[in-house]
Amino acid sequence: MKIGIDARMYGPTHSGIGRYVQELITHLGMINTEHEFVVFLKKEAYDTFVLPNKTWKKVLADIHWYGGEEQVRLSRIINREHVDLMHFPHWNVPLLYRGPFVVTIHDLIMFHYARRDASTHGALVYKIKDTLHRFIVKHAVTRATHIFATSQFTKDDIVNTLHVPEKKISVTYQAPFEHAKNGAEDAGAVLEIWHIQKPYVLYVGNAYPHKNLEKLVDAWRVFFQRNPEYQLVFAGKDSPWYESLKAHARGVGSIIFTGFVDDAQLSALYENAHLYVFPSLYEGFGLPPLEAMTYGVPVISSSASCLPEVLGDGAMYFDSTHVDDIVHALEQGTGNEELRYDLRKNEKDEVKRYSWKRLATETYDTYVAVA
Fold first, then answer.
1. In terms of domains, do 158 and 34 share one?
2. With left for phi above 0 and alpha for psi between -120 and 50, is residue 305 left, alpha or beta?
3. Which segment of 120-129, 222-231, 256-265, 318-327 scores lowest on mean pLDDT?
4. Rounded Cα–Cα distance for residues 39 and 37 (Å)
5. Environment class of residue 34 by beta-carbon count within 10 Å: exposed (0-12), middle (13-18) or buried (19+)?
6. For the chain, what is the radius of gyration of the CA atoms?
7. Cβ-based burial of 94 (10 A; exposed 0-12, middle 13-18, buried ≥19)
8. How far does CA 129 lie from the centroid of its chain?
9. Which structural domain range is residue 80 located in?
10. Do the Cβ atoms of 284 and 151 come closer than 8 Å?
11. What is the DSSP string of 248-296?
12. Residue 182 domain flag
């Protein structure tokens, strides 16, 4: 059997999905099998991608996602390889692709938080693209031979929102990134780059509206007045949404924006954080707080969506729609030593539930079963 994987988002520069693709391929490559794999890559990853073994092949598919070229050219490139089963690790399955495929759905954010301020496009373009994207998602889950969901919450969401039969979906949990701790730079040097001083509270990720970061800043305004020794650090790639957040945070004490950080810098930020905070309103999985747990950082998190499922007893939860509740969580998470001890202890058990090796094995077994 020949299995294709759309790896155009391969690598950490493409956020959570890129990491997922990278770890999936890495661990699939460790499975002893005679089945062939074809990996479709953009130019930026094609030149450096190392084939796991002789049963793997890489194909250049230098096509950006979500555009018209993806809908037309990508199908032709895949068809030339005569794959028996194609894995699309995101919902952007070309409408013209007629071969059998499986798809990973990370979340259905566009169906629940379809907000104009979540796009850089004008109102008319946004409306057209949003409508088209919803259609592509529905087409993907309808035509897919099988669907991988990132959590039970996401599986239930697919069933209830898109009316897909439950038996067609399996849950494959992701895991903290195993290489994240490797090669951490000298912590002092990393913190000095942005003039970060301990103790600090950390958030890692993008600043899309559903991340609810403005509400966190509002809570920080209150918390900082009572606890001026703390800094709040936002680690995430610069974007229009981060620029908006910076404007909202103007005049609020001790808030630092790092912009994009590499793996070694991120490791240092995690290792030295006093507390990790995650106020999101909606997640399909929620990797950053799970990563923080691997560093022994106490975590306070929104109680929304999948987060209690994923983080379990390893986090203290708050109602992320109420500033007062976030303030209370910040104060407990920074100052209640008994709570902090319990969270650290529970985190060790929670992170054991997740493994990239297990995800790859479950994914591979599904390939074989449905092809």
1. yes
2. left
3. 120-129
4. 6
5. exposed
6. 21
7. buried
8. 22
9. 2-175+355-370
10. yes
11. HHTT-SSEEEEES--HHHHHHHHHH-SEEEE--S--SS-HHHHHHHHTT
12. no
Residue 28's SS3 state is helix
| Tens-digit pLDDT profile for residues 13-48 | 767 899 999 999 999 999 999 999 999 999 999 999
Residue with tokens 């099988």: 146
Q: Which amino acid would we find at residue 16?
A: G
> What residues does 276 pair with on adjacent strands?
202, 299
Cα–Cα distance measured from residue 5 to residue 128, given in angstroms and rounded to the nearest whole number: 28
113, 232: one domain: no
> Six-digit token pair at 220?
């920080």
Are 97 and 227 found together in one domain? no
User: Which one, of 110, 113, 100, 166, lies nearest residue 138 by Cα?
Assistant: 110
d(CA 89, CA 87): 6
pLDDT at 311: 98
Residue 60 CA to residue 64 CA, distance in Å, equals: 12
What's the pTM value of the predicted model, to 2 decimals?
Answer: 0.92
Q: Say how far apart CA 284 and CA 155 lie, in whole Å.
A: 9
Number of domains in the chain: 2
105 pairs with which residues across the strands? 149
**Residue 306 is encoded by which pair of tokens?**
């999948």
**Nearest Cα residue to 216 out of 129, 308, 319, 299:** 319
Instruction: Return the SS3 of 218.
Output: helix
Structure tokens that stand for 304 in this block: 């929304």
Helix locations, 50-193, DSSP H: 68-80, 109-112, 123-143, 152-162, 187-193
CATH number of the domain within which 74 lies: 3.40.50.2000
Identity of the amino acid at 114: A
Distance CA 66, CA 329 (A): 39
